[in-house]
Design brief:
The complex is a heterodimer of chains A (559) and B (266). With 559 residues, chain A is mostly helical. Chain A contains 21 helices and eight strands. Chain A is globular and about 95 Å long. With 266 residues, chain B is mainly alpha-helical. In chain B, strand 1 and strand 2 form a beta hairpin. The termini of chain B are far apart. Classes of the chains: A mainly alpha (559), B mainly alpha (266). At the A-B interface, helix 6, helix 11, helix 12, helix 13 and helix 16 of A face helix 7, strand 3, strand 4, helix 9 and helix 10 of B.
């Protein structure tokens, strides 16, 4: 609290300095309080409690990479020219001197080779985008597998889901701006997908491109979408997302003293703000370090867009890979009706993508309908305590992963010396088999872990000390759990399948059966009492035999 | 009986006549076709030494007279080398692809088995079997006369769909692939375009003039010279390796930081 100038330090003691600072603070605080009721804000936010766990920090990573995207993006807009006017390049990159290209591509080359720090900013913008999407996915996985989407947070799940979609739109629109061959290929795929939509497809394509593909309107249009529309929507939704987090309070993992009515953790001021601030700089540092050392999207190699070439290894950024995978897997099915070609090879993948996204968005509502659970949940589930949910999540990820891998089939073929045709068939079969198999395996693993935890709660930890009684029985010494340790193992909810009738539809009965038919019976108090009594009895027996000394004869000899 | 036998042809006679006719027309066409002058003059000694090498190393698959061999099921064991020219030999043997290491989707590049002299002798022998593209003149390999921009455009339109925009290579059907095309001897790049080895299409003079080929070589050289201004190139394979990098290296760094910050609170 020594907030004094050197002159004041001479005369004033520490106490006086402190009181002066307080006085200044009080005046300033009062001034703010009377105008924007700052006191209320501070009361509401500064003492807000946030629980600490590394898995809670990926939302933050997404937020911070978004801030980096805004900063680096602002820099880039100062030099980027979203124009499709044709120019002849005369900049420093020799292998394109004299080539005809759009002004957008030329200004991207200028940013890369002429603007000081331009290439670093371009790479930061792109890497931050990849990190943004990675963080969103990891954050979503965490929320999904811990059941954090349950009441009252269903709407926030939808907001988060929309943010993910907007992230894809932002990424894709940005990827298309430099007007290089790769980005043009991506636009051509979008054009093809749109044109495959019956009746309205060609009109949609004409509307987006302002005429026949590629035209001269698409880059300026995408620019507006990329720097104004989508970031504004993302920013707005982030605000809603965070306000809802504050409103609902943060969830917490189960533990002693943690209930549905409290949050155990640190207040925003001073601890959490410092940690979050520090984390922002760490994320910023990591992205800068990567961008300064690792190349991304060398547009000058792809060359200026020309509709004819498609390079080998043409893929979208990772978060859009899955949309390419379906197109690579589907056989070339199409038929003609009244002279119109219906491209099933486009429509079926699009339907699958829509279904995959829809089921993700609606999952909280599906689960709530199945369980009929109307309580608020602020204590998280441990993933193994919700076997069907966890298995469903793993299965969804596997489907997504196979689609993404299918989009990289050419690179996998080269790296592993395999035939691309065989790989495509492996993925075609895999997309039906792997999700089912991974669902089953994950569910069984979860149930096994539950069974193991149940044993642990009842009998304590195995110490691998075995004592042989006079009758030849072998007894293992178990170390009992503390009440705190046991609490985490026995606190979870238990659901049972319902039978149809009494207001339960047969569909819902079937759904509950699917979700909860295989379950591990939770420990009853009577069971626990019995287990504890049994353990005491056994310990008594062992102590009598060994005198409470469980060392082996060899160990005794050493001491 | 005797009169009949005298008038009867050997059953293969017709085939022989047909073959002779084909060779005659083919030979005439080849002789009258516009040709680049043979860049190198081979002596009779070269041809003879080449033939000896050929019999020892190549005849198992290509046949004793380089006429090509087929397996019992009709598949090609080794194609005929009549008319492939010295350029094809210089490429295949000079890059170590021939003699082939093992049967497979295609011959892999490996350290050459023949010395430069032996390669030259083999080329002389094969060139003597029938006219074909010759080893290119130094003039067409001199990149100081090439135009990288022009070559880049040709490369993106004609080559990148298999060899990747950065020349990093790419997959073809059924285990075949287009190899990496950077860091190569310009002569071999020229010969590959000229002769279309393995699965590669032929870009002869009617498609790409020697000047065009020189431009492509100049472009590939400029790609190497430029290197990767942005830092580690991750193999120049594009967004997939970048995404993999984000999910592995960067995510581990972030995860480590998060765990560290989470743990410090205790």
């Amino acid at each position: 609290m020594t907030t004094t100038t050197p002159s004041s330090r001479k005369q004033a003691s520490d106490g006086e300095g402190t009181s002066r600072a307080y006085k200044l603070g009080a005046i300033g605080g009062d001034w703010l309080d009377q105008r924007v009721s700052g006191g209320g804000l501070v009361k509401e936010f500064a003492r807000k409690i946030f629980p600490d766990h590394w898995s809670f920090m990926f939302g933050e990573v997404a937020l911070y990479s978004f801030v980096i995207l805004l900063i680096s993006g602002t820099f880039l807009t100062m030099f980027f020219d979203p124009s499709m006017e044709e120019v002849v390049y005369s900049g420093p990159y020799e292998a394109l001197q004299g080539a005809t290209m759009s002004r957008a591509f030329e200004s991207t080359l200028e940013i890369s080779f002429e603007v000081k720090g331009g290439l670093l900013f371009r790479q930061m913008h792109h890497w931050a985008c990849l990190v943004f999407m990675v963080a969103i996915f990891v954050h979503m996985f965490r929320v999904f597998f811990t059941g954090a989407f349950r009441k009252p947070r269903e709407l926030n799940w939808l907001v988060g889901f929309t943010l993910m979609i907007l992230g894809m739109v932002a990424g894709f629109s940005g990827y298309s701006l430099p007007d290089d061959v790769l980005s043009g290929n991506g636009l051509r795929v979008i054009d093809g997908l749109m044109k495959a939509i019956p009746i309205v497809g060609t009109y949609l394509s004409m509307l987006l491109f302002g005429g026949e593909f590629p035209g001269t309107a698409i880059i300026p249009r995408l620019f507006t979408i990329h720097i104004l529309l989508v970031p504004a929507m993302i920013l707005g939704l982030i605000v809603i997302h965070l306000v809802m987090v504050v409103w609902h309070k943060h969830t917490q993992y189960p533990g002693p003293g943690r209930t549905e009515r409290n949050v155990v953790g640190f207040p925003v001021l001073p601890v959490y703000a410092a940690k979050a601030g520090g984390f922002f700089f760490l994320v910023f540092g990591i992205i800068t370090l990567i961008s300064a050392t690792t190349a991304i999207n060398a547009v000058w190699v792809y060359g200026p867009y020309d509709p004819s070439p498609v390079s080998a290894g043409s893929q979208p950024d990772w978060y859009m890979l899955w949309t390419d995978g379906g197109l690579r897997l589907i056989p070339g099915w199409e038929f003609t009706i009244f002279g119109y070609v219906i491209s099933l090879n486009m429509l079926i993948p699009m339907a699958i993508y829509g279904a995959l996204l829809a089921v993700l968005a609606l999952y909280p509502f599906i689960e709530a309908w199945v369980t009929g659970d109307d309580r608020e949940h602020h204590v998280l589930d441990l993933p193994y305590n919700a076997p069907v949910r966890t298995a469903f999540g793993v299965s969804w990820i596997m489907t997504y992963l196979i689609l993404a891998l299918a989009a990289t089939n050419d690179l996998i073929a080269i790296a592993l010396h395999l035939s691309i045709n065989d790989l495509t068939w492996a993925f075609r079969i895999g997309i039906f088999v792997v999700p089912v198999l991974s669902f089953y395996i994950t569910k069984r693993l979860c149930l096994s872990i539950q069974r193991q935890k149940r044993n642990l709660a009842l009998h304590g930890k195995e110490t691998s000390r075995v004592v042989r009684t006079e009758t030849g029985d072998m007894l293992e010494v178990h170390a009992p759990l503390s009440d705190y340790e046991r609490w985490v193992l026995v606190q979870h909810d238990d659901y049972r399948p319902l039978s149809a009738g009494k207001g339960v539809s047969s569909l819902r009965a079937k759904a509950t059966s699917f979700f909860f038919k295989d379950r591990i019976e939770p420990i009853t108090p009577a069971e626990l009492r019995e287990a504890i009594a049994h353990a005491e009895h056994e310990k008594h027996e062992l102590d009598e035999l060994t005198g409470g000394d469980y060392r082996t004869p060899a160990e005794k000899a050493v001491h | 009986m005797k009169a009949l036998a005298a008038r009867r042809h050997h059953p293969m006679a017709l085939l022989v006549i047909l073959l002779l006719a084909l060779v005659a027309t083919g030979g005439l066409y080849a002789a009258l076709q516009p040709q680049t002058a043979q860049a190198e003059a081979y002596t009779q000694d070269d041809v003879e030494a080449g033939e000896a090498l050929f019999l020892a190393n190549c005849a198992t698959c290509h046949g004793r007279n380089a006429e090509g061999l087929t397996e019992a099921d009709g598949s090609t064991l080794g194609p005929s080398l009549v008319g492939v020219g010295a350029a094809a030999v210089d490429f295949q043997v000079g890059t170590g692809r021939m003699p082939m290491q093992r049967a497979g989707a295609q011959a892999d590049r490996k350290p050459p088995q023949m010395t430069e002299e032996q390669t030259r002798q083999l080329a002389a022998y094969v060139a003597s079997l029938g006219p074909g593209p010759a080893v290119p003149d130094e003039e067409w390999l001199d990149t100081s006369q090439g135009d990288a921009t022009q070559g880049g455009e040709i490369f993106r339109i004609n080559c990148a769909m298999c060899h990747n925009a950065a020349g990093a290579g790419g997959a073809l059907t059924r285990g075949k692939y287009a190899p990496e095309v950077t860091g190569l001897d310009p002569k071999h790049v020229y010969e590959a375009m000229e002769t279309g080895p393995q699965n590669m299409p032929v870009f002869n003079e009617t498609n790409l003039s020697p000047e065009d080929k020189r431009d492509v070589i100049t472009y590939l050289e400029s790609l190497e010279e430029t290197g990767s201004p942005g830092g580690v190139s991750l193999g120049s394979l594009g967004p997939v390796t970048e995404g993999l990098y984000a999910w592995t290296i960067i995510l581990s760094l972030l995860l480590g930081t998060a765990v560290w910050l989470g743990a410090k609170a205790k």
